[in-house]
Design brief:
The protein is α+β, with helices and mostly antiparallel strands. The protein folds into two domains: 128 residues, no CATH class; 188 residues, no CATH class. The chain is 51% helix and 13% strand. Helix 7 runs parallel beside helix 10. The longest helix is centred in the last third of the chain and has 27 residues.
Length: 343
């Protein structure tokens, strides 16, 4: 009964976070107020009817267009992640430093200037004026800003860290899988009579395929989510809502996997099993996501799901239980849990 109460408590805690979506970020506030040169168009005002746009000033239309294509606008907060970020007094003036902001400084976008390209072969140059306070402000070109800073939102910061440290955590999971396989050769192959590990692998495969599909066909959705993230799927477009819902499902199923492992395996065997499952999960994610980018993953995904169902039906599912302790059994004989003989 205690286990069930613990499970329900965890699920309630996870689901309650869904009710708090992120809102439009507030500008940074100090003792003085940073002056903003352009009228701000809020994200919820993006879908403006055609007959209404005639009432907007050219400045407002430019701000709206920039918000749609660059996913941020004036009053948007960034957190500096580089050791230092150099700001200059005027757009394009790189000879004299105005000031420097440093790692973990919170900066706000005060003004945006778009320098149009001279010909069709060149790209427009975007200069962004940012400010830490009234005494610390200056201009920086947009590519350098986006490389040196991250949106001031915990989800955006996690996504940025996962992107830039991808090689590290991928290598870690693969290493865990190799360790699990090496240990498994010394111990009897491990499995638990539960569908949750199979369901976990299925969800990971679908997430990998969907994420790669978004990168292939709708990268703007991912960029919008990066700048304005939320864990509430009700506030997102359908494709991103499905992706976030799958992430929530993966978190809940992962908790269930840990509970099932704790239920069926001793500590040493549980660690080995989790190492194996973690390594296999990473391999599944990498294979499905990479092959989806070249469209092969759309064939591999249903085949992989069918393979998992087949494996569960013929190797994991238990149709009997021990007459002594009640634990699931695949076949008659000695119960691996209590040692009783089942005829």
């Amino acid at each position: 009964m205690r286990k069930k109460a613990w499970i329900y408590g965890i699920l309630l805690l996870l689901l309650s976070a869904c009710s708090h979506g992120t809102t439009e970020q507030e500008p940074q506030r100090d003792s003085d107020t940073v002056a903003v040169a352009v009228t701000v168009i809020k994200a919820d005002e993006v879908a403006v009817p055609t007959d209404t746009t005639s009432a907007l000033t050219p400045q407002q239309i430019d701000s709206l267009r920039f918000r749609l294509t660059h996913h941020y606008t004036e009053n948007f907060n960034f957190l500096v992640k580089a050791d230092s970020l150099r700001l200059v007094p005027r757009q394009g003036d790189t000879q004299m430093d105005t000031c420097t902001v440093h790692d973990d400084d919170l900066i706000v976008v005060a003004q945006i200037h778009v320098q149009l390209a001279q010909d069709s072969l060149s790209k427009d140059t975007v200069w962004v004026k940012v400010a830490r306070d009234q005494q610390t402000m200056g201009w920086v070109d947009e590519p350098l800003l986006l490389r040196s800073a991250v949106p001031d939102d915990p989800i955006s910061q996690i996504l940025d860290s996962l992107t830039y440290s991808r090689g590290v955590w991928m290598s870690l999971f693969v290493f865990l899988g190799i360790v699990g396989l090496w240990l498994a050769r010394r111990i009897k192959p491990l499995s638990i009579p539960s569908f949750y590990p199979i369901l976990m692998l299925m969800i990971i495969a679908v997430i990998a395929s969907l994420y790669a599909s978004v990168q292939n066909f709708a990268p703007e959705y991912w960029l919008e989510y990066y700048f304005h993230p939320t864990m509430n799927p009700l506030l997102l477009p359908p494709v991103m809502a499905v992706l976030v819902t799958l992430v929530w499902a993966l978190l809940i199923v992962t908790v269930a996997v840990f509970i099932e492992v704790y239920r069926y395996l001793h500590f040493q065997h549980a660690l080995i099993y989790l190492f194996q499952l973690g390594g296999l999960s990473m391999v599944v994610y990498l294979v499905i996501s990479w092959t989806t980018l070249i469209y092969v993953g759309y064939l591999l995904l249903p085949l992989f799901v069918l393979l998992l169902f087949y494996y569960y039906k013929h190797r994991i599912r238990c149709t009997m239980q021990c007459g002594n302790c009640g634990r699931p059994l695949r076949e008659k004989g000695i119960c691996p849990t209590c040692g009783a003989v089942n005829e």
